[in-house]
């Protein structure tokens, strides 16, 4: 595992210490790694949603009603 030296602002350092003190994490390193994993997962979800929205925008608009769209969505979800 790569070793790094980073600096935190006082409020962030106090928050990190509080999480470790509450035994949520065994160390600040573990907490920082978990936060990075969460941020990476969140970014992957955002990228997936963005790709879906771009695909939908590129496919144009529909004249279907809200009810028709809902029924189509339910049909696709139910197989």
Looking at this protein, list some descriptive labels.
79 residues; mainly alpha; 71% helix
Radius of gyration: 22 Å
Q: Please outline the major beta sheet.
A: none
What would the average pLDDT be, to the nearest integer?
A: 93
**Helical percentage:** over 70%
The rough form would be described as elongated
The topology string of helices and strands comes to HHH
Question: Helical element count?
Answer: 3
Provide the β-strand percentage band: under 5%
How many distinct domains? Answer: 1
- Distance separating the two termini: 44 Å
Structural class based on helices, strands and sheet pairing: mainly alpha
Number of strands: 0
Report the uncertain regions: none
């Amino acid at each position: 595992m790569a070793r790094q030296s980073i600096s935190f602002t006082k409020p962030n350092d106090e928050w990190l210490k509080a999480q470790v003190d509450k035994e949520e994490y065994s160390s600040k390193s573990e907490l920082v790694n978990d936060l990075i994993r969460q941020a990476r997962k969140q970014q992957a979800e955002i990228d997936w949603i963005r790709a879906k929205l771009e695909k939908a925008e590129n496919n144009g608009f529909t004249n279907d009603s809200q009810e028709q769209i809902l029924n189509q969505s339910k049909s696709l979800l139910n197989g």
